[in-house]
Every structure is written in structure tokens, then in C-alpha cells.
Amino acid sequence: MGLDDKIRNAAEEAAGKVKEKAGDATDNEELEAEGQADQMKANVKQAGEKVKDAAKDAFDRD
Predict the structure, then answer these.
(1) DSSP label at 7?
(2) How many domains, in total, are found in the chain?
(3) Domain limits at 57?
(4) Backbone angle region of 4, left / alpha / beta, with phi > 0 → left and psi within -120 to 50 → alpha
(5) pLDDT digits (tens, 9 = 90+) for 15-36
(6) What is the pTM of this model?
(7) Residue 11 half-sphere exposure, CB side, CA atoms within 13 Å?
């Protein structure tokens, strides 16, 4: 996983948290749900990158 990808995914997750909190504070359920979706999307991307890293490490050991 490249450093750029890690930073980008972390920023996307943080932005999702901000959206979720803003939606909660303003009773805007749509914004809150959008923030949660952004966080989940970032987490899925991070998990995919971790799988790629694990596979790469496994092949590099051979």
C-alpha cells in the first residue's frame, strides 16, 4: 500500500467522520448517513490495500 493511498484513505475516513458528526449535530440524517457511507468506503479501500500488501509480502518471501 503506497503512502499516498494510506493518506488519501485516512483523509476520506476523517472527512466521513466530520460529515457524520455534522449531520448528527444538525439533525440531518442524510448527511449523517453520507458520512457513515464515506467511512465504510474508506475502510473497504484500506482493507483491500492490506490484502494486496499481504499477498505481495507472501510472494516476496519465496
Answers:
(1) H
(2) 1
(3) 3-61
(4) alpha
(5) 999 999 999 999 999 999 999 9
(6) 0.81
(7) 6
